[in-house]
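wait is this the right file?? whatever heres the structure
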């Protein structure tokens, strides 16, 4: 399939070149807007986090570093790569190739946003006065503590009574785990579900996405709210469904949320 400019996604032979092209097409020329959306997905609001995200994006677009899988999946969602099956396949292939090349070269991967007291890529710039350094770290620690408290409060609110009303009014469908799946190119099927605490709401899709593998023959998407049986919970519990969509023929085994899955994809019958 040709891309929007009349070329082919197969024309790109490096992941960072394809990433840079997609950023330019989305209007993210200077990284600022994309860095802001990236931080929002991670729940990071600090200026240091934003600056680190801008630096990481610059490094990823230049090919200096390759993002870890968690951040790769977030970028995939931000750039809506899944809208085009052939783009998604090429995107995943080039990323896997880049990661393998980096691993064989024993190169460091620096792409995580820092937490309080944690360094960033490369050597930190020297600080002239130790008192300023301690004051800066104290402010960052206080901010981290405040965000933690807010997060705890938000979690408790999210797990309160309104959630129980929503589930009691409209019971989600019950799914089963599918360790062996066969489907045609273009077909989709729910293969798993990520639960939260027993009887509590499941995590949002952005979190589930970071726990999923990279597939060469398809992609994963949000299947919505469902129910699944859990041995740990001794019965049914709410979950977020994981849908697999087949993009190309092949057989693949991967680890999905702690379970080994085997997927076989065939060409549509004529």
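ok assuming it is, sequence goes like this
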């Amino acid at each position: 399939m040709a891309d929007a400019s009349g070329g082919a996604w197969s024309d790109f032979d490096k992941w960072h070149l394809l990433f840079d092209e997609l950023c330019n097409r989305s209007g993210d020329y200077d990284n600022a807007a994309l860095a802001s959306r990236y931080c929002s997905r991670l729940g990071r609001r600090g200026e240091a986090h934003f600056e680190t995200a801008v630096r990481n994006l610059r490094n990823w677009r230049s090919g200096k570093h390759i993002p870890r899988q968690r951040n790769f999946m977030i970028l995939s969602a931000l750039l809506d790569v899944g809208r085009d099956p052939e783009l998604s396949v090429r995107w995943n292939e080039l990323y896997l190739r880049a990661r393998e090349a980096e691993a064989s070269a024993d190169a460091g991967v620096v792409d995580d946003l820092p937490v309080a007291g944690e360094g960033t890529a490369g050597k930190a710039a020297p600080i002239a006065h130790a008192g300023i350094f301690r004051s800066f770290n104290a402010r960052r620690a206080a901010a981290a503590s405040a965000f933690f408290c807010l997060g705890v409060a938000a979690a408790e609110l999210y797990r309160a009574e309104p959630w129980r009303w929503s589930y009691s009014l409209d019971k989600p469908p019950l799914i089963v785990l599918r360790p062996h799946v066969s489907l045609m190119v273009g077909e989709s099927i729910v293969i798993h579900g990520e639960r939260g605490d027993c009887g509590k709401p499941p995590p949002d899709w952005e979190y589930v996405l970071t726990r999923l593998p990279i597939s060469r023959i398809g992609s994963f998407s949000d299947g919505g709210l469902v129910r699944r049986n859990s041995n740990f919970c001794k019965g049914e519990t709410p979950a977020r469904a994981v849908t697999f969509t087949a993009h190309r023929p092949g057989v693949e085994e991967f680890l999905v949320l702690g379970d080994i899955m085997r997927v076989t994809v065939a060409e549509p019958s004529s």
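Residues 180-266 form one domain. so i think its the right one actually
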